[in-house]
Specification:
Layout lengths: L6 H21 L6 E3 L2 E6 L10 H16 L3 H4 L3 E5 L4 E3 L2 E4 L1 E3 L3 E4 L1 E2 L2 E2 L8 H10 L13 H7 L3 E3 L4 E3 L15
Parallel strand pairs: 2-3, 3-7
Antiparallel strand pairs: 1-2, 4-5, 6-7, 8-9, 10-11
Amino acid sequence: MASLCSPRTATVHAMALWALLAMGCGQAGPQPDFEVRGVGVMVRSDAPFAAQPDLAHRIESTLGAALDYWGGTFEQVAGMTVTLDGARYVACDGVASAIGCFDGDIRVSTSDVGTAFACVEQTALVHEVGHAVIGDRDHADPRWMDFEAVAAALDGRTGYDGQAPTDCPVAVSVWRHPPHRR
């Protein structure tokens, strides 16, 4: 019987450990760049606002305003990932031209018709949090056409254009969605 400390046993244990580590590494996806109250955040954008030191705070406060609007809590979105994507569109459930998507995680484009948004508040994040909290793929809830209260909560924030701070006007039209007709 081989000793636990024999070279052969140590080699077998090392190979088994290496195999376990390799399997774990192969299964893990990209890791978030940072976390906000249990929500992982991945930055895949070169939008000027995405490189600002206040990004984590801005995402947290935008999530907070959206959760308040939708009647949700941070506990409901904990464990999810928010990805800020520099592409004009994010693929979502067979739709190639979505500006946001919730499919268990949230992805939002950081550009509007090819021009970078000035701040995270201008993205479809508020809209996608709605899907995370209430679902409602058909947009039947009347709140999909409102948003003035959440826009007021996010109004007056600083935006970034790559050169200097600028305005960050929120357009609720980015978040609105009329009900699907069947």
